[in-house]
Structure formats: structure tokens, C-alpha cells
Amino acid sequence: MTRFLAGRLAGLLVTLTVSSFVVFAGLYLAPGSPESVLLGNSTPTPERRAAVREQYGLDDPFMVRYLHWLGDVLQGDLGTSFVGNQPVAARIDAVYGTTLSLVAVTAVLIAVLGLGLGLLAALRPGRTDDLVSAATATAAGVPAFVAASLGISVLAVRLGWFPAYGAGGPGLPGTLHALVLPALSLALISSALLARVTRAAVRAELGKEYVETARARGVPTRRVIRAHVLPNAAPPLITVGGLLVAALLAGTVVVENAFGLPGMGSLLIGSVNQKDFPTVQAVTLLMVTGFVLVNLLVDVAQQLLDPRLRQGGTP
Amino acid sequence: MRTAVLAAVVTAALTLAACGGGGGGKATAPDAFAKDRSDTPAAQGDLDSYTWYGDYRAPYSLDPVKNADYPEQTVLPNICESLLRVKSDYTLEPGLATKWEQPDPRTLLLTVRDGVKFADGTPMTVADVVYSLERNRDTRTVSSYASLYANVASITAGTGAGAATVKIAFRTDDAVFVKVLATLGGSVVSRAHAKAKGADLGTPKAGVLCTGPYRVTSFDGAGDLTMERNDHYWDAGTVRSKKVTFVFPASAKALGNAIAGKAVDGGFNIPSPLVPTLAKANGGTLWTGAEGSSPQNLDLVVSDLRKGPLADPRTRQALSRALDREGIARSIFSAAADPLYAVAGPGTWGYARDRFQRAYDELTVRADPAAAKELITRAGAEGRKVKLAYPTGIELYAEVATTLQQTAERIGLDMEIVGLPLAQYGEMFIDPAAREPYDAFLTMNYIQITEPAFLYGFIATPDGPQNYGGYDNPEVADRITRAFGTTDDRARADLLIEAQERLAQDLPWIPIVAPRATVYLSDKVAGVPLTFGYMGRPWAAAVGAP
């Protein structure tokens, strides 16, 4: 396990280094410059423009700028945003909580809906299975932004059950209330996919010989399912569920924008438009880190769950 | 030659940061169409709190002079008061100065209001006023209003008959600077606080200390901004609401959702894709101002007057003649805009309106593609290619660009339209190299100071900061420069009208349409200007229950 972890952590470092370079280079190569933010929107005098370019090191060669930035990041300094001269860390500090809560609520929804509906379909062949399958097939084709529009117009505007916009009222209940609709729109596709995978995995286990044998011996079905079917079906479900949750980090960008949630996604979009290099770099790097970390967790969970992997050492 | 010609004309390229949405198509004139009013009905009662659309992004800084764009100019006048204010009809009225006079064209004398306190209870002194104005002249501040101060020679504190005064001396005669004092460029911050915070002033952490009716109680630089009543406000009796929350939805769609879901009670500058829907909305009213209620102008800017087919004035005149401005106003702007025949249209006339109107009426022409085609033939531009750039992500620009393309085609010009991402498009205003590949580009421009001299000085004098095409007509420059020093409003208007007549022939910028002011008010709130006057006064204090 230690060797496995060490290997994965080394891989993580390589991934992060490569992605930091890609992110930095991508922004560097994109047309446009951040000066409209730094200088306000009136045409600057050449001297002022030069002064600002000097202050932010905009004229330094690419590698100098990259290494400088990387060095700062390694020391925990995410830089200073071009917007309002604030530390990037402070800007992220103001919004990451919203995004993490959104991901957490969505993950719970995906797990509950996906596993629940999948199990229901697997264990109740016939009408229920058909119904769930049809519903998940439809839901799997609805992109988050369509789901968001639909949710807003029906559940928020027509029925007034949830806020259509913003971070919600004070305290945890207020926040959760505001997160339900965005989380639902995000969870729709993912939970449908998870439901289909769950149904297939559980069905496959149910058809195996040991289930028949156990049943023939008079072991109650409930116990068979809980003690044997579910643990055996779990590894693929954890892989798929974990990947879906990791992908959420990107999905929040669309949904936060539609619901006006002040999170990392909204910050990213705003910063891209403003060419706020330091913020875009930091947010992207954090999102990539989050993605890679969730993947690592999935792998570790796999290792712990699957005795074959655990006993057999690293593959 | 000219010094004071620089101005706070902000190229609001990123305005109406809308995407998706219904768009135009139908010509439904909004219901609450205010023919002759510059205010919505006044509030009748008090409110505990309300939520307002603070425009398309959160303010970059709370420092009132740092950025001059919609969010800052919507939110900050309520927190940091200026020496003067504009009423909704753009006439000046007292603010932190109770009186102003110009004993001669090179001197402006202001009497500072007595008994004003900052939001922390410390008294405001004439030293705070001088310090705040001087910040605009200090290059280290990087004030957005710096160029407006170019003609200021000195700012000194004095004592009039018992009252504190401030004397502003100009290098050359200056008839228009006084209007700057009714923008955030004339706002007053606490000197002690500003000095203590240094370069951090205006960041969410350091904040700002001013005298306005409200003080910021929560702001993180990205999300909502809340402000609460300033208990030390000198005019406390006029403040109707305890708390105001500003929200900043980035897209028209998100704003539409927020309004539909009653999460927002109102807002200025409603993006045009929302106009048709909101005009029919339940629970609120979309108000549209009269013609000239907004100083916004949508124009086609010629990148370089020395090259390409557009270098020939006849080609520019042909494009202008062929344009169906009324059609654009009706279909793309859902009738919440008017055809524009001079860059400084009715929304920019802060004075001598009848004079400007008479001259403007003469510039008004019907679209005439046949005459335009003939001009193209005479210019020998037939079949030549013009490349036009516009920003993507904002639907109306693409629609206008497409209309222009069809117009050009009809008169024998070949027009290619190129959508640029906002960040790249923004570069066009700063860097000539970014403009180089395009013959022209679309821009939505606005001035906060309703003084055509600023606008024309900006776009039509040789070193005007928005003179992108290199326009150089000594006659025009002469009229504009003289206008700046002419204190008599009618004489100043006449000079500008002369310049305008030449500009209508030369067309370094081709005016297209002027959107009208739009204001959404839910049934819960009332009492806001129906013009851009809100940018020059602490408007939020007057908002209350209908």
C-alpha cells in the first residue's frame, strides 16, 4: 500500500507540474492582454502602460515568468490579482466554500439517486425496471445548462420553492436551500449514468452462481444482497461514481454562472474575460488538483475494498 | 493646444454583458414607456432592505476613482459622495459643496458643506476635499479621472466668508471641468483613512471611508455587496432604506432568472435581450426612458482613416447613408433605442437642448441605398473588402454586425465580419496593432458627463484618446478646443454644432443607434432616475416603497 501511494503521489506531482505549465502557456499564448483591467478603460499614455507592464512583469520572457510564478506558488503565494490589487488567495477564499458545498450536495444527490434508482431497477424487474430505465435514459441526455433553465423556470419561478439566483439566506439552511436546484441540475446526468451502471453491476452479480446457491440454501434474499451482491458490485460503482464527482469540478462552472452562485466557476469565467492571469492560473490549478486528488481517493478506496488488489500488492 | 479635451468617456465595450436570452426579432415597444419623464414615480414609504442589480460584474475596487465603468458608477456614488450632483435631467445641484461659482473662466470656487461627517463619525474637513481631488492628479493613484484634471493648475483650500472653500485654478479657460465634480472624479474620501491604507485602499480588506448615505458592510471582491445606512450621514432624513444588497449576475440570462425568481428588486441598464420578456413580466415594471434618456451610443469606428476602402470619406458616407438605423433600433433593440445621426446624440446634451436639437434634425436622413451605391461607385470601392470586428458573447453585437454586412453587400461592398472574444476585443482600445487587421469595429460608448465637448474632443481631436483612426481636421479641432473654454452655454453649443456638421461628412465614427435608459422595478420598490443621472448622485437613498 505504501509503495502504491508513493507511486500515485509521484504521478500526481508530475500531472500537476505538467498542467501548471499548460495552463500558464495557454494563457500566455492567448491573444489580448490584461492591461484593460490594470489601466481602466481609457487609453493609457505610453509611459503609464510601460510602468504597469514593468510592475507586473508582463514583458519578461515566458520561462522567467513561469518559473517565477511556480516558485511563488510552491511557497504558498498565489500572486496578486490584476483586479483591485487583491491577493488571489483572498479572492479564492471568498468563493471556494460555495463550490465545495455545491460539489458535496451534488455528490450526495448522485450517490442517493444513482445507487437508489439503480438498485430499484436491478431488484424489481418488470414495470419498475422499465420505468426507471426510461427515466434514466432521458435524464442522461439532458445537459446541465438545460436542466438549470428548466429547474429555474418550473421549481423556482413558477412554484417558488427555491431561490432562482444567488447564494441564499444566512446560515446552513439558507445555503442548502439555494444549492438544491443547482445541485439537482448538476446531478441529473451523473446520477442517471450511475443508476445505469449500478443496475448492470447488481444484475450481473445477481445472475452469478453463488447467489443461486445461497438462495437455494434458504439464505434470505436481503442478506444475500447486503452481504454478497453489494460488496461485489461496489468496485466498479466506486470508480464510476468517483469519476463523476471529479468531473463535477468542471461542471460547476456552467451551473454557478446560471444560478449566480459566487463560486470558483463564476470566478474563473469572470477572470478569463478580464485576462486576470494570476486568478485564472490559481483557480485552474486548484481545480486540476481537486480532480487528481479525487481520482487518487477513488484508487485508494478500490485498493481497500478489493481484497485481490490489496493482497496481491501493487499491480 | 487642447489640454482638457481628455475625458471620462468610457468605452464600455463590455456592457450589456449578455449572452443567450431571447434576443430581438419582434418590435414590441415596452409598456411603461416614459415619453417625457426623467424619473420613475417617487417612493412613498420606507423599506427595510432591497436587492439591486449592480451590473455585469462586481466592482473591481471600492476606491471611487479607480475604475470608471458601470458597476463602480452604479454602486459607489451611494458610498462616496461627490462635491456636486447631477439631477436626473443632468443639471447640477449641491453635494458636499453647497455653492460653486466661476468668477472668471480660469477659476472655480467651491463652498464646502459644513457639519459633514465620515461614516466613522470623524468630521470632514477642507483638507480631505483637497486631498481627494489631488489624488486624481497624482499619477501614483492611477485615477480613471486623471485625464479630466489635465487642465487643472492648482487646488487650494481657502476661507471665504466664514465657510471653508476650495479654489481650483485652470491653465486655460475652462467651462466644463465643473461637471467633473459631479462624477466619482469629484468624490471625497477620508484623508487619514486613505493614507493609512495606502495602495490597499478600496480592496475588500481595507475598504473605503466616505460620507455617503451608506457604508459597505460586506464585500469580498467577487460576490454580493451589501451596504447599510450610515448613521453619521449629514442628510439622514432623506434615506429611506436601511440596507441594500447589490448582486452582479454575469449574464443577461442569470439576471432574467434572478428577476423572475424575485431575487432582485430592480436594476438600471437592463440588457436588451431581457427587454421583451420583462416588459410583460408580472410583479414588476420595465421602464424605458424617453429618446435621449441615455448617453450611450453604438458606433462603427474606423480603425485607420489612411488605409483600406474606408479611407475614402465617400465609402464611409455610403455606409452611413445605407444604414437602416430605424430597423436596427426596432428589431435588435426591441424598440428600446433610437436611430443615431451624430455620435453626440440627444442623450449627451446637458444644456442648450433646443440648439442641439435643431442642428440634429438637419442630420436626420432616411436610409437611401441607391444614393449610397452611387457613392460607392464614385469612390471606386465596388467589390472591395472591408473587415469589421465585433465582440462575441453579446448577442446584439453579432446582430448589428450581420445587419451591417447585409447593408454593405446591398451597396456593392464586400464585408467580412469577425467576432472576437472579449479579452481580445478589449485590446482594440489600447493597442493599434490589435486594430490593424480590421478596417472597422463596433463599440458601445457612453459618457457620464453630458457634455458633447468631451465626446467630440475624445474622438475628433488629433490626440484625443479615442481618436483611433487618426482623424485630423484643424477646423474641427479648433471649434472643439474653443468650446472647452467657452463659459456661455449657447456659444459653446454653437461651436460644437459647427464641429458636428463637419464630422457628419468626415465620419471617423459612424453613429448607428442610441439605446434608451432602461430600469426594472419590482412592485416592492420605487423612486429612481430614468436616465443615466444615477451615476452622478447617491440615488439609492431615495429608493423606497411605492
Automatic annotation (TrEMBL), chain A:
Keywords recorded for this protein, A-Z: Cell membrane, Membrane, Transmembrane, Transmembrane helix, Transport
Subcellular location: Cell membrane
Ranges where the ABC transmembrane type-1 domain occurs: 96-298
GO cellular component: plasma membrane
BP GO annotations: transmembrane transport
Transmembrane segments: 12-30, 100-123, 135-156, 176-195, 236-259, 279-298
PROSITE patterns reported for this sequence: ABC_TM1 (PS50928)
InterPro entries for the chain: BPD_transp_1_N, MetI-like, MetI-like_sf
Pfam families for the chain: BPD_transp_1, BPD_transp_1_N
Main location: membrane
CDD domains according to UniProt: TM_PBP2
Family, per entry: Belongs to the binding-protein-dependent transport system permease family.
Name of this protein: ABC transporter permease
